Amino acid sequence: MTPVAVMVGANRVVPAAGIIHPLGNAELSPEDEKALRRRIVEQALRALATDVAQPTVFTGPSSDRSGPSQDRPGPLADHSDR
Amino acid sequence: MNQFFGQLGGEEKAAIGPDVVEGAVGAARAVQQALGESGTVVATVRCGDNYVAERSDAAITELVSLVAAQRADLLVAGPAFLAGRYGVACGALCAAVQRELGIPAVTGMHEENPGVDLYRRYVHIVRTSGEATRMLDEARRLVALGLKLARRDEIGAPDAEGYFPRGITHNVVAREHAARRATAMLLDKLAGRPFTSEVPLPSFAPAPAPPRVADVRHATIALVTDGGLVPQGNPDRIESLAATRYGAYSIAEKRELEPAQYDNVHRGYDTTYVKQDPHRLVPVDVARELEQAGAVGKLHEVVYSTTGVATTLANSERMGREIAAELKAAGVHGVILTST
Protein backbone atom coordinates (compact mmCIF):
# COMPACT_ATOMS: atom_id res chain seq x y z
CA MET A 1 0.00 0.00 0.00
CA THR A 2 2.99 2.35 -0.03
CA PRO A 3 2.04 3.81 -3.46
CA VAL A 4 -1.35 4.79 -2.01
CA ALA A 5 0.30 6.36 1.02
CA VAL A 6 2.56 8.38 -1.25
CA MET A 7 -0.30 9.35 -3.56
CA VAL A 8 -2.39 10.76 -0.73
CA GLY A 9 0.60 12.71 0.50
CA ALA A 10 1.82 10.87 3.61
CA ASN A 11 5.24 12.43 4.13
CA ARG A 12 7.10 9.63 5.88
CA VAL A 13 6.23 6.13 4.71
CA VAL A 14 7.79 2.90 5.98
CA PRO A 15 6.95 -0.30 4.09
CA ALA A 16 5.64 -2.89 6.53
CA ALA A 17 5.09 -6.63 6.39
CA GLY A 18 1.78 -6.91 4.58
CA ILE A 19 -1.85 -5.96 4.69
CA ILE A 20 -3.10 -8.72 6.96
CA HIS A 21 -0.32 -8.25 9.51
CA PRO A 22 1.60 -5.04 8.86
CA LEU A 23 3.71 -5.38 12.01
CA GLY A 24 4.15 -9.14 12.07
CA ASN A 25 4.23 -12.36 10.15
CA ALA A 26 2.44 -15.45 11.46
CA GLU A 27 4.81 -17.75 9.57
CA LEU A 28 7.82 -16.69 11.61
CA SER A 29 8.77 -17.95 15.03
CA PRO A 30 7.58 -15.63 17.83
CA GLU A 31 11.15 -14.39 18.33
CA ASP A 32 11.74 -13.68 14.65
CA GLU A 33 8.35 -12.06 14.33
CA LYS A 34 9.04 -9.69 17.19
CA ALA A 35 12.47 -8.87 15.74
CA LEU A 36 10.79 -8.05 12.45
CA ARG A 37 8.31 -5.79 14.24
CA ARG A 38 11.10 -4.06 16.09
CA ARG A 39 12.99 -3.36 12.88
CA ILE A 40 9.90 -1.76 11.33
CA VAL A 41 9.26 0.41 14.40
CA GLU A 42 12.91 1.44 14.52
CA GLN A 43 12.73 2.33 10.85
CA ALA A 44 9.65 4.45 11.64
CA LEU A 45 11.55 6.23 14.40
CA ARG A 46 14.40 6.92 11.99
CA ALA A 47 11.86 8.31 9.51
CA LEU A 48 10.43 10.61 12.20
CA ALA A 49 13.95 11.87 12.93
CA THR A 50 14.63 12.67 9.26
CA ASP A 51 13.65 15.89 7.50
CA VAL A 52 11.75 15.36 4.25
CA ALA A 53 10.51 17.81 1.65
CA GLN A 54 7.94 15.54 0.02
CA PRO A 55 6.36 12.08 0.49
CA THR A 56 9.31 9.79 1.05
CA VAL A 57 9.49 6.02 1.37
CA PHE A 58 12.08 4.84 3.87
CA THR A 59 13.39 1.61 2.39
CA GLY A 60 16.98 1.92 3.52
CA PRO A 61 18.51 -1.09 5.25
CA SER A 62 18.46 -0.87 8.99
CA SER A 63 21.68 -1.53 10.86
CA ASP A 64 20.48 -4.70 12.59
CA ARG A 65 18.78 -6.25 9.59
CA SER A 66 18.55 -10.03 9.79
CA GLY A 67 16.08 -12.71 8.92
CA PRO A 68 13.72 -12.41 5.97
CA SER A 69 13.94 -9.10 4.18
CA GLN A 70 10.80 -7.05 4.30
CA ASP A 71 12.07 -4.41 1.96
CA ARG A 72 10.20 -3.78 -1.22
CA PRO A 73 11.01 -1.27 -3.90
CA GLY A 74 9.50 2.04 -2.89
CA PRO A 75 6.91 3.60 -5.18
CA LEU A 76 9.23 6.49 -5.85
CA ALA A 77 11.82 4.09 -7.15
CA ASP A 78 9.59 2.30 -9.64
CA HIS A 79 7.54 5.29 -10.63
CA SER A 80 9.62 6.21 -13.65
CA ASP A 81 7.44 6.90 -16.66
CA ARG A 82 8.48 4.28 -19.14
CA MET B 1 -20.21 43.33 -8.10
CA ASN B 2 -17.54 44.33 -5.64
CA GLN B 3 -16.67 47.99 -5.08
CA PHE B 4 -14.24 48.00 -7.97
CA PHE B 5 -16.38 46.38 -10.66
CA GLY B 6 -19.43 48.21 -9.28
CA GLN B 7 -17.66 51.53 -9.86
CA LEU B 8 -17.69 52.64 -6.23
CA GLY B 9 -13.92 52.93 -6.07
CA GLY B 10 -10.73 51.02 -5.42
CA GLU B 11 -9.23 49.42 -2.34
CA GLU B 12 -10.07 52.53 -0.28
CA LYS B 13 -13.76 51.67 -0.71
CA ALA B 14 -13.37 47.95 0.15
CA ALA B 15 -15.08 48.39 3.54
CA ILE B 16 -18.29 49.75 2.02
CA GLY B 17 -21.51 47.90 2.83
CA PRO B 18 -24.08 46.51 0.41
CA ASP B 19 -26.31 48.62 -1.80
CA VAL B 20 -28.57 48.11 -4.80
CA VAL B 21 -28.68 50.19 -7.96
CA GLU B 22 -31.45 49.88 -10.51
CA GLY B 23 -30.30 48.47 -13.84
CA ALA B 24 -26.77 47.61 -14.89
CA VAL B 25 -23.83 49.46 -13.37
CA GLY B 26 -20.13 48.95 -13.98
CA ALA B 27 -19.22 45.45 -15.14
CA ALA B 28 -22.93 44.55 -15.09
CA ARG B 29 -23.18 46.56 -18.32
CA ALA B 30 -21.16 43.81 -20.00
CA VAL B 31 -23.69 41.31 -18.65
CA GLN B 32 -26.53 43.38 -20.12
CA GLN B 33 -24.71 43.57 -23.44
CA ALA B 34 -24.18 39.81 -23.41
CA LEU B 35 -27.84 39.21 -22.59
CA GLY B 36 -29.00 41.29 -25.56
CA GLU B 37 -32.66 40.56 -26.20
CA SER B 38 -32.64 37.52 -23.93
CA GLY B 39 -33.01 39.41 -20.68
CA THR B 40 -32.68 42.56 -18.63
CA VAL B 41 -30.38 43.32 -15.74
CA VAL B 42 -32.99 44.53 -13.24
CA ALA B 43 -30.52 45.64 -10.63
CA THR B 44 -26.85 45.60 -9.62
CA VAL B 45 -26.11 44.58 -6.04
CA ARG B 46 -22.76 45.91 -4.85
CA CYS B 47 -20.63 45.39 -1.77
CA GLY B 48 -17.05 46.04 -0.71
CA ASP B 49 -14.62 43.10 -0.64
CA ASN B 50 -13.59 43.62 2.96
CA TYR B 51 -17.13 44.14 4.19
CA VAL B 52 -17.96 40.57 3.06
CA ALA B 53 -14.63 39.04 4.02
CA GLU B 54 -14.84 40.39 7.58
CA ARG B 55 -18.47 39.48 8.25
CA SER B 56 -18.85 36.43 5.95
CA ASP B 57 -22.18 34.82 6.94
CA ALA B 58 -23.83 38.01 8.16
CA ALA B 59 -22.85 39.91 5.01
CA ILE B 60 -24.06 37.10 2.77
CA THR B 61 -27.41 37.11 4.62
CA GLU B 62 -27.75 40.85 3.92
CA LEU B 63 -26.87 40.37 0.26
CA VAL B 64 -29.31 37.47 -0.13
CA SER B 65 -32.18 39.64 1.11
CA LEU B 66 -31.21 42.39 -1.36
CA VAL B 67 -31.18 39.84 -4.18
CA ALA B 68 -34.51 38.40 -3.00
CA ALA B 69 -36.21 41.80 -3.30
CA GLN B 70 -35.39 41.96 -7.03
CA ARG B 71 -37.38 38.82 -7.88
CA ALA B 72 -34.89 37.98 -10.62
CA ASP B 73 -34.74 34.74 -12.60
CA LEU B 74 -30.97 34.53 -12.47
CA LEU B 75 -28.06 35.85 -10.39
CA VAL B 76 -24.83 36.59 -12.22
CA ALA B 77 -22.02 37.25 -9.74
CA GLY B 78 -18.62 38.53 -10.82
CA PRO B 79 -16.70 37.42 -12.80
CA ALA B 80 -14.05 37.62 -10.10
CA PHE B 81 -11.03 36.56 -12.19
CA LEU B 82 -8.09 36.14 -9.78
CA ALA B 83 -9.47 38.40 -7.02
CA GLY B 84 -9.58 36.13 -3.98
CA ARG B 85 -11.91 37.99 -1.62
CA TYR B 86 -14.24 38.76 -4.52
CA GLY B 87 -14.22 35.14 -5.71
CA VAL B 88 -15.02 33.73 -2.29
CA ALA B 89 -17.84 36.27 -1.88
CA CYS B 90 -19.28 35.44 -5.33
CA GLY B 91 -19.21 31.71 -4.57
CA ALA B 92 -20.80 32.15 -1.14
CA LEU B 93 -23.53 34.44 -2.45
CA CYS B 94 -24.38 32.17 -5.41
CA ALA B 95 -24.56 29.14 -3.13
CA ALA B 96 -26.78 30.96 -0.63
CA VAL B 97 -29.11 32.41 -3.29
CA GLN B 98 -29.59 28.99 -4.88
CA ARG B 99 -30.15 27.32 -1.54
CA GLU B 100 -32.37 29.91 0.13
CA LEU B 101 -34.19 31.55 -2.78
CA GLY B 102 -34.20 28.73 -5.33
CA ILE B 103 -32.87 31.19 -7.92
CA PRO B 104 -30.20 29.79 -10.24
CA ALA B 105 -26.83 31.51 -10.06
CA VAL B 106 -23.63 31.58 -12.05
CA THR B 107 -20.24 33.14 -11.43
CA GLY B 108 -16.83 33.08 -13.09
CA MET B 109 -13.25 32.85 -11.82
CA HIS B 110 -9.70 31.98 -12.74
CA GLU B 111 -8.80 28.43 -11.72
CA GLU B 112 -6.44 29.66 -9.00
CA ASN B 113 -9.06 31.79 -7.30
CA PRO B 114 -9.65 30.21 -3.86
CA GLY B 115 -13.40 30.59 -4.49
CA VAL B 116 -13.15 27.77 -7.06
CA ASP B 117 -12.17 25.02 -4.65
CA LEU B 118 -14.54 26.31 -1.98
CA TYR B 119 -17.68 26.54 -4.11
CA ARG B 120 -17.34 24.60 -7.37
CA ARG B 121 -19.31 21.69 -5.90
CA TYR B 122 -22.32 23.88 -5.20
CA VAL B 123 -22.18 26.56 -7.88
CA HIS B 124 -21.58 26.66 -11.63
CA ILE B 125 -18.32 28.61 -11.84
CA VAL B 126 -17.27 29.52 -15.37
CA ARG B 127 -13.55 29.26 -16.06
CA THR B 128 -12.20 32.74 -16.85
CA SER B 129 -8.83 34.31 -17.46
CA GLY B 130 -6.91 35.99 -14.68
CA GLU B 131 -7.59 39.60 -15.69
CA ALA B 132 -10.56 41.67 -16.76
CA THR B 133 -9.11 42.60 -20.15
CA ARG B 134 -11.77 40.70 -22.08
CA MET B 135 -14.73 41.43 -19.88
CA LEU B 136 -17.37 41.21 -22.61
CA ASP B 137 -16.14 37.80 -23.82
CA GLU B 138 -16.12 36.48 -20.27
CA ALA B 139 -19.56 37.97 -19.56
CA ARG B 140 -20.92 36.26 -22.68
CA ARG B 141 -19.75 32.88 -21.41
CA LEU B 142 -21.25 33.47 -17.96
CA VAL B 143 -24.52 34.61 -19.50
CA ALA B 144 -24.69 31.67 -21.94
CA LEU B 145 -24.49 29.19 -19.09
CA GLY B 146 -26.67 31.38 -16.85
CA LEU B 147 -29.48 31.46 -19.40
CA LYS B 148 -29.43 27.67 -19.61
CA LEU B 149 -29.67 27.49 -15.82
CA ALA B 150 -32.49 30.06 -15.72
CA ARG B 151 -34.42 28.17 -18.40
CA ARG B 152 -33.76 24.88 -16.59
CA ASP B 153 -32.18 23.53 -19.79
CA GLU B 154 -29.99 20.47 -19.54
CA ILE B 155 -26.43 21.46 -18.62
CA GLY B 156 -23.67 19.66 -20.50
CA ALA B 157 -20.35 18.38 -19.18
CA PRO B 158 -17.97 20.87 -17.52
CA ASP B 159 -15.53 20.90 -20.44
CA ALA B 160 -18.27 21.47 -22.98
CA GLU B 161 -19.95 24.27 -21.03
CA GLY B 162 -16.79 25.84 -19.65
CA TYR B 163 -17.41 25.52 -15.92
CA PHE B 164 -15.34 23.85 -13.19
CA PRO B 165 -16.26 20.20 -12.48
CA ARG B 166 -18.75 19.93 -9.64
CA GLY B 167 -17.92 16.34 -8.75
CA ILE B 168 -21.23 15.04 -10.09
CA THR B 169 -21.34 11.81 -12.06
CA HIS B 170 -23.76 11.43 -14.97
CA ASN B 171 -24.41 8.24 -16.90
CA VAL B 172 -23.83 8.65 -20.61
CA VAL B 173 -23.84 6.15 -23.46
CA ALA B 174 -20.42 6.00 -25.09
CA ARG B 175 -20.05 5.61 -28.84
CA GLU B 176 -17.64 2.71 -28.52
CA HIS B 177 -17.23 -0.02 -25.95
CA ALA B 178 -14.60 0.22 -23.25
CA ALA B 179 -12.03 -2.07 -24.89
CA ARG B 180 -11.95 0.07 -28.02
CA ARG B 181 -11.73 3.29 -26.04
CA ALA B 182 -8.93 1.92 -23.85
CA THR B 183 -7.00 0.66 -26.89
CA ALA B 184 -7.38 4.01 -28.65
CA MET B 185 -6.13 5.75 -25.53
CA LEU B 186 -3.13 3.41 -25.32
CA LEU B 187 -2.28 4.00 -28.99
CA ASP B 188 -2.50 7.75 -28.42
CA LYS B 189 -0.23 7.44 -25.43
CA LEU B 190 2.32 5.31 -27.31
CA ALA B 191 2.32 7.76 -30.19
CA GLY B 192 2.78 10.71 -27.84
CA ARG B 193 -0.60 12.17 -28.79
CA PRO B 194 -2.76 13.94 -26.21
CA PHE B 195 -5.44 11.83 -24.54
CA THR B 196 -7.88 12.30 -21.70
CA SER B 197 -8.47 9.68 -19.04
CA GLU B 198 -12.10 8.87 -18.34
CA VAL B 199 -11.26 8.29 -14.69
CA PRO B 200 -9.54 11.35 -13.30
CA LEU B 201 -7.66 10.55 -10.11
CA PRO B 202 -8.68 12.52 -7.07
CA SER B 203 -6.19 15.22 -6.33
CA PHE B 204 -5.01 15.64 -2.79
CA ALA B 205 -3.75 18.95 -1.55
CA PRO B 206 -0.17 18.38 -0.45
CA ALA B 207 0.26 18.29 3.31
CA PRO B 208 3.45 20.10 4.25
CA ALA B 209 5.89 17.72 5.92
CA PRO B 210 6.26 18.46 9.62
CA PRO B 211 9.87 19.03 10.68
CA ARG B 212 11.74 16.02 11.97
CA VAL B 213 11.57 15.01 15.61
CA ALA B 214 14.90 16.42 16.73
CA ASP B 215 15.58 13.97 19.53
CA VAL B 216 13.51 10.80 19.55
CA ARG B 217 15.21 9.69 22.76
CA HIS B 218 13.46 12.51 24.59
CA ALA B 219 10.27 12.64 22.54
CA THR B 220 6.77 11.35 23.26
CA ILE B 221 5.66 9.02 20.49
CA ALA B 222 2.05 7.91 19.97
CA LEU B 223 0.64 4.88 18.17
CA VAL B 224 -2.38 5.36 15.88
CA THR B 225 -3.99 2.86 13.54
CA ASP B 226 -6.67 2.70 10.88
CA GLY B 227 -6.60 -1.08 11.06
CA GLY B 228 -9.67 -1.52 13.29
CA LEU B 229 -8.25 -2.51 16.69
CA VAL B 230 -10.93 -2.10 19.40
CA PRO B 231 -11.36 -3.34 22.97
CA GLN B 232 -13.64 -6.38 23.29
CA GLY B 233 -17.25 -5.33 22.78
CA ASN B 234 -16.28 -2.33 20.62
CA PRO B 235 -17.43 0.20 23.24
CA ASP B 236 -17.30 3.18 20.84
CA ARG B 237 -19.23 1.22 18.21
CA ILE B 238 -16.69 2.02 15.52
CA GLU B 239 -18.17 1.12 12.16
CA SER B 240 -16.75 -1.87 10.26
CA LEU B 241 -16.54 0.29 7.16
CA ALA B 242 -17.18 3.91 6.16
CA ALA B 243 -16.18 4.92 9.67
CA THR B 244 -17.35 8.16 11.21
CA ARG B 245 -15.86 7.46 14.65
CA TYR B 246 -12.55 6.59 16.24
CA GLY B 247 -11.62 5.34 19.69
CA ALA B 248 -8.99 6.44 22.19
CA TYR B 249 -7.74 3.50 24.25
CA SER B 250 -5.41 3.66 27.21
CA ILE B 251 -2.30 1.52 27.23
CA ALA B 252 -1.07 3.01 30.51
CA GLU B 253 0.86 0.41 32.53
CA LYS B 254 0.53 -2.12 29.70
CA ARG B 255 3.70 -3.83 28.57
CA GLU B 256 1.74 -5.57 25.87
CA LEU B 257 -1.75 -6.02 24.49
CA GLU B 258 -3.57 -9.12 25.77
CA PRO B 259 -5.32 -10.73 22.74
CA ALA B 260 -8.36 -11.70 24.82
CA GLN B 261 -9.02 -8.05 25.67
CA TYR B 262 -9.15 -6.89 22.05
CA ASP B 263 -11.19 -7.40 18.94
CA ASN B 264 -10.99 -6.11 15.39
CA VAL B 265 -13.97 -4.74 13.48
CA HIS B 266 -12.26 -3.80 10.20
CA ARG B 267 -14.17 -5.36 7.30
CA GLY B 268 -11.55 -4.62 4.63
CA TYR B 269 -8.99 -7.36 5.27
CA ASP B 270 -8.66 -10.79 6.89
CA THR B 271 -8.27 -9.87 10.55
CA THR B 272 -7.50 -13.42 11.76
CA TYR B 273 -3.83 -12.71 12.36
CA VAL B 274 -4.18 -9.42 14.18
CA LYS B 275 -6.89 -10.91 16.39
CA GLN B 276 -4.43 -13.66 17.33
CA ASP B 277 -1.85 -11.02 18.22
CA PRO B 278 -2.84 -7.31 18.23
CA HIS B 279 0.85 -6.36 18.07
CA ARG B 280 0.80 -7.38 14.42
CA LEU B 281 -1.19 -4.16 14.01
CA VAL B 282 -0.28 -1.95 16.97
CA PRO B 283 3.28 -2.59 18.15
CA VAL B 284 2.85 -1.77 21.85
CA ASP B 285 5.25 -4.54 22.90
CA VAL B 286 8.32 -3.34 21.01
CA ALA B 287 7.45 0.34 21.48
CA ARG B 288 7.39 -0.24 25.25
CA GLU B 289 10.73 -2.07 25.05
CA LEU B 290 12.23 0.80 23.09
CA GLU B 291 10.89 3.22 25.71
CA GLN B 292 12.46 1.22 28.49
CA ALA B 293 15.75 0.97 26.61
CA GLY B 294 15.79 4.76 26.26
CA ALA B 295 15.46 4.73 22.47
CA VAL B 296 12.13 6.55 22.80
CA GLY B 297 11.51 9.20 25.46
CA LYS B 298 7.98 8.17 26.26
CA LEU B 299 5.28 6.04 24.67
CA HIS B 300 2.02 8.03 24.69
CA GLU B 301 -0.50 6.34 26.95
CA VAL B 302 -3.41 6.48 24.52
CA VAL B 303 -3.74 4.56 21.24
CA TYR B 304 -6.16 5.98 18.67
CA SER B 305 -7.94 3.56 16.36
CA THR B 306 -10.50 3.57 13.57
CA THR B 307 -11.29 1.52 10.47
CA GLY B 308 -9.86 2.79 7.20
CA VAL B 309 -12.09 1.09 4.65
CA ALA B 310 -14.52 2.93 2.35
CA THR B 311 -14.11 5.85 4.73
CA THR B 312 -15.05 9.10 3.05
CA LEU B 313 -12.31 11.63 2.51
CA ALA B 314 -14.29 14.20 4.52
CA ASN B 315 -14.58 11.88 7.54
CA SER B 316 -10.94 10.82 7.23
CA GLU B 317 -9.83 14.43 7.25
CA ARG B 318 -12.07 15.33 10.17
CA MET B 319 -10.98 12.36 12.28
CA GLY B 320 -7.35 13.05 11.40
CA ARG B 321 -7.69 16.67 12.47
CA GLU B 322 -9.42 15.74 15.72
CA ILE B 323 -6.89 13.04 16.61
CA ALA B 324 -3.98 15.34 15.72
CA ALA B 325 -5.43 18.10 17.90
CA GLU B 326 -5.74 15.74 20.88
CA LEU B 327 -2.22 14.41 20.37
CA LYS B 328 -0.83 17.92 20.13
CA ALA B 329 -2.66 19.01 23.25
CA ALA B 330 -1.19 16.00 25.04
CA GLY B 331 2.34 17.05 24.09
CA VAL B 332 3.03 14.24 21.62
CA HIS B 333 6.01 14.90 19.33
CA GLY B 334 5.68 12.13 16.78
CA VAL B 335 3.19 9.51 15.62
CA ILE B 336 3.59 6.05 14.16
CA LEU B 337 0.38 5.32 12.25
CA THR B 338 0.08 1.68 11.29
CA SER B 339 -2.14 0.93 8.34
CA THR B 340 -3.36 -2.23 6.64
Q: What's the tally of helices of chain A?
A: 2
CATH class of the largest domain in chain B: Alpha Beta
Mean pLDDT of chain A: 78
Going by helix content, strand content and strand pairing, the class of chain A is mainly alpha
Give the strand content of chain B: 5-15%
How would you describe this protein?
The complex is a heterodimer of chains A (82) and B (340). With 82 residues, chain A is mainly alpha-helical. With 340 residues, chain B is α/β, with parallel strands linked by helices. Chain B has two domains: 151 residues, Rossmann fold (3-Layer(aba) Sandwich), CATH 3.40.50; 123 residues, no CATH class. In chain B, helix 5 links the parallel strand 4 and strand 5. In chain B, helix 3 crosses helix 4. The model of chain B has no long low-confidence stretch (mean pLDDT 95). Chains A and B meet through helix 2 of A and helix 9, helix 10 and strand 12 of B.
Question: What's this, in brief?
Answer:
Chain A has 82 residues and is mainly α. Chain A contains two helices and two strands.
